[in-house]
Every structure is written in structure tokens, then in C-alpha cells.
Design a protein that fits this description.
heterodimer; A: three-stranded antiparallel β-sheet; B: alpha/beta
Chain lengths: 518, 261
Amino acid sequence: MNFWQFLQQNWPELLVHVRDHFYLVLVSILIAIAIGIPAGILLTRKQSLRGPVLGLANIMQTIPSLALFGFLIPLPFIGGIGARTAVVALVLYSLLPIIRNTVTGILGVDANVREAAVAMGMTDTQILRQVELPLAMSVIVTGVRVAMVIAIGVTTIAAAVGAGGLGVYIFRGLRQYDNNLLLAGAGAAALMALGADFILGFFERRFAVTSRSTQTKGRRTVVWLATAALVVFVIAGFFYLNAGNASDAASRVVVGSKDFTESVILAEIMAQMLEQRGVSVERTFELGGNLPHDAVLAGKIDIYPEYTGTAYTAILRYPVNTDPAIVFNQVKKDYDEKFNLVVTEPLGFENTFAILVRGVDARRLKLKTVSDAIPHAANWRAGFGQDFMTRDDGYPGFSKRYSLQFAQRPSEMDLSLTYIALQAGQVDLIAGNSTEGRIAALDLVQLEDDRRYFPPYEAVYIGRRDTIDRVAALREAQSTLAGAITTDEMRQLNYEVDANKRSPAEVVREWLAHKGTK
Amino acid sequence: MDEPPHNALVEFRDVSFQHGNTSTPVISHLTFTVRQGETLVLLGKSGCGKTTTLKLINRLFLPTFGQVLVKGKPTSDWDPIRLRRETGYVIQEGGLFPHFTVGRNIGLVPVLEKWPASRTESRVNELLEMVGLPGDFSTRYPAELSGGQRQRVGVARALAADPPLLLLDEPFGALDPLTRAGLQREFAALAKELNKTVVLVTHDVREALLLGSRIGLMDQGQLILLETPDAFLSSKDERALAYIETLEFPAVVSEQEDARA
């Protein structure tokens, strides 16, 4: 599918992401203006505050965006997942340029002009409103312009906390190695940034007072039009951002997922089964890292797919255990006692780390097991996802168990990119997922874990007890799904989405119809 | 004091001023009066304290010691906003607001004083005519004017609410000599016609002699001489003589130019 065809098929969805993106940016920038300009004005009056406040705003901007989202998740009121968290983070990012330019603009007003204003008997408020702000406006608008362009970029990260926007396409495109998605997401964000830059550049020139072309009438009209447009957008944005929260929580189930294809598919299966039973479902998919866990604890989502091994080691922080039954029982017990969360019966398939090499290498070197690969490792480069590099049951223990020594320290990259890197010959060994759909398509071979290092991960749903007690359809769906998905089926579902670029909703609908699961 | 008190619009009583916690005073022990209707010129080198003296009158500064009285009331007792609106102030290049039209610049104080729009407008037109600018200038912006025109607007703005007292800080300093001479003559005539009390700061002794009814010579924060122009020219004080000597050389040049022509 070329990009043009992609756009023709997906433009309604793309427009939704553009709209979400735009509103997130706009609402954030307006709040940042409402805080930043008064703060900037205050700093011009209170010199002693200037250093600390600008320093703080500076620090805000140096925090990597994903980390800032991470800090915000557990906080009450401003945290959680969804648009509100994204708006808070975006406001924090946008403050610095706006505050700094307000201060610079006002302090940059010609000393003669300010002295004349004082000497004419203008009060401080009159000087601010009639002299300093109008003369500083062009510099302040520059600050807003910079903040806006930064915010449009940072908003792409907001998809990781479930706030939507063009980041959804970018993350999905990275995961599925789909250039059309990447191009649509990144391209639209870039166009939006250019557009915002152009429009605010126009305002900036309008407000510049040095040019001879300054026209009072024109300025007035522009200011009024801009104000009217902003008011409309703010009201629209307010309703829009509140739409999600306003609907009744009683009859609705919020289904979450992690940010990889399999999790999205499993979440979609649950969502569609609930919908078949007449339950209204809200999808909060593609949450990064362990966000779904925080979200389900905080009641932002009701249920999401999880793996027992992940829950056991990454959340409960137990040492690695390779017995699936022990792991499952411990997780079920602890989740009940510690979090008051329900762990459903396993779905049937196992998803564990799969050590993968290229098919040509496997055939040439006659590799069947990981042990077979040990002699070759010294000439190989390995590439692993960030997750695998750091977790207890990941690289450190793995390399020890097999006494593996690679030519150089393994490259750390996004998990979904490792498959491509392996196929392209940039690395020679990766740790993928056993249910990854592209394993066969990319002619990759899984080496058997002959020393039984990797714990088997069983897929389960983690749900809030109150929701499960309340919604009968949820109890029904989860018992129907117990043991219902084989490893081959899961691989096939993943393949349909990742390799054939079909939407999870469509693939799941087909699968449910085929299974006759009702 | 030889003047009767009712005749003094501004009075300095042993005034000293220093900035913040600096130890050297900018001006020290100034005592003089500005009489109703006179043009007092403060003459001196840059840094001698003449601008500071001016700013003490409209309370841009408050004295560290002593008192400055305007209309018999210490500036510290004045509402600063009231005092400034009743005092015209002109600085170099006019200090015009670049984002205001000429009309809005001139009408600034009337608008602040909430005059009706029609009265402000007719006052602006009256002032434009008074300072010799065409009426259609009121819609122009300062950037569209020449230096001399901007200075005229600055004077018009200072006169707008008809204040009895005008303070001028090197008002003609940035102008070319021909424009300056023209403006000085017009200003002298205008001040006389309107019967304004004027305090003008300059480093130009010719300007002082042309405009001043009295000249106060300042040096290192002190007023060392306060005389009429005639008395100033015949002064034997060496610091006054230094200024008078500068008058002779340009005079020779202009005679030579006359001879050539």
C-alpha cells in the first residue's frame, strides 16, 4: 500500500488524531498563556523572584517528556492517564518560553519611553496595559510561537499516556514498522507545527511597532478576531476534554492495553465481547510501560491484558521463577491481597522471550538451541529492547546462564525495531516475543531455550474487583476466554495486524466470528 | 530669600540626593527657587546632577535630605500621579510612545484625565497648530516623523493639559543645528506667550543664554552660580568663564563664513 492509498483509506481516523492533537496543544497553550504572562509580568515587578522562577521553568523543560508523564501518573487530581495528564505536562513545557519572553519583552521597552510614561503621570497599571504590554507584545507572541511549536512536538508523546493525538500513529508505526503510519503521524505533526509557526509569525509581525505600516484599525481587528477565535476554541476544547469524563461511569467499562500489538488485540477481544453483550466500552489503548497497572489501580481503566511473568517480576518484584503454576498462583493471591484486583484464568497461549536469529544463519550453522549459538556469539552483535536489557529475567541473567559473550555490548533499541534490525543484518541475535507474528514472515528462527532460562508468561486479564462484581458480561467474557487462544492463533492474529497492516478491530471481529465465541 | 514666597512655584530647601546605598551624593545642599513665569536653565556637564535636579521636581526621585516644594507643598506630600499630570515633561527625542499615533501621544494626559473625546480632539488640533505641525499629522506614527517633528510633538504632549510648569531635559540635544536653532526660537516665543514656568536642563551655553531668564550653573552636584544671562556673561567665576570662552570660537567661524558668502 502506498502512502496515497493509505491516506485515502485512513483519512477519517487521521483527522480524529489531528483534532485530538490540536485540542491538546491549544488547551495547553491557552492555560500556559493564562499562567505564563501574569507570572512574567510579576517577575518584572519582583526582581528577587526572577532567578528562582525562571530557573524552575528551565528545569521543567529539561525533564524528558516521557519521564515527566511518568512523574505525573501517580499524582492525584492532575495525574492519571488521558488528556488531563497530557495537558498538565504540556503546560509545564510551554511555560518557560512564555514567561521568559514576557519578562524580556517588558524589560526591553525603551527606558526613555517608560520614563516618559511615568513622568506623564500614568499609574503602574496604565503603564503596563497601555505601554509595556503593547510594546512587548511582539516578543511575547514569539514566546507563544516557540511554546506552540514545542508543544506540538511533545504532544506526540502524549499518546503514551492515552491522551491520543498524532503520537498514536507514530507509536503504532514504530511498533509495526509501518512507514505509512509514521509518515502520516510525523508529517501531520510537522505540518501543524509549520502552520502554527506561520500564523503566529503573522501575529508577531502585526504586533511589531517599529514598522511604518502599523495601522491602528488593522491591529484592533486582528486582536478581536484572535480573541473571538480563541474563546470559541477554548469552549469547544473544554467540552471536548470533558466529554470522556462526563459520561456515566456506572454502565461503562474502560478497557486498557499496553503499547504493543498483542496487548491491543487482547484488549480489543475483551472490548468486542463486552460490546456483543450490550456493554458500553471505552478503549484506552496503547499505554506505555507499566502505565496500565497504575491506571487500573487508580480506577482510570477497569480491565487490561497482562502477563503473569511481568506481574510476578516487574510489578511484585519476585525473583524469576520458571514454574508457570507457582507464578500464576502467587500473582493471583498477591493481586487480590495487595491491590484488590482480580486475575482471570490464563488465555491459553504462552508469550515468552524468544531468542531469534536469521533463518539463513540457522540453516548454515545448523542452529537449533541457544546453546548451539554460544560458539558464534563472539562474532555476533545482539540487539535487545530496553525492557529486556534491564529486567531481572532479561539480559543479565540470560547471558550468565548461557555464558554468552557478544562482540560488543548489545544495542538497546525499541523492541519492534529489533526484528527489522535482525532481518537487515545490523544485528545477529535478538530477543523477541514468541507470539510475534512477523517471525515467519521475516524468515527468523527461534532458538530453543534448552537451559530453561525464560519463565513462561501466560496472558491473563487484570480487572478491578468492583467492576467485575458489577458487570455480569465481564465475568461471562473472561470465563469464555479461559484457555481459548492457542499460541499459533495468537501468532496469526499478531501477523494479520503487524505484517498485513490490518486494524486490530477488524482482525478481532473476524476471529470472534470464526471462533463462534459468543 | 529676596523673592516673596507666593512668587515661587518650585523651591529647593537644602536638598541632597543619592542613589540607593551609594556613598557619593548626586547632588548636595541645593537651595534655590523657580519663580512663577520664569525660564530657569540648569547648565552643566554631563553627570553634574542637573537631570537629577529636574527629576526631583516631578517626584521621579524623592530627596534623600531636605525638601522640594511645588506650589508650596513638599513633593513627598504630593500624590505623585497628580503632581506629574500637572507638570509637563519633555525629554530628548520626545520619549514618544512608538505604538501611539501623534494624536494619541499628544492627547495622553487629557485621556488619562478623562476629558471628553471631542475636547481632547480639539485640544490636540490646537496644540499641533501651536507647535507648527499640520493637522493631518495626528494620525501618523512617531517613526514616520523627523527628529525635529518628534520634538515638537513631545512639547505639544507636555502642554496638553495646560500645566503651569514645564520640565525639559535636553529637549533639543539630538537635533541638527539648524533645526535646533529654529525650535529654540519658537519654544522661547511659545513659553512667553503661554506664560509657563520652565525649568530646562542643557549642556549648551548658547541655548542657556537664548532661552534662560536665569541660568543656574551646576558642577559636581552643586549649584555654583544662579544669574541672569547678562550677569552670567560678566561673571568672573572661572567655571562660568570656561563656558563663555566656548562661545568665542564658533563666533569666529561664523564670521569667516559670512565673509566668504
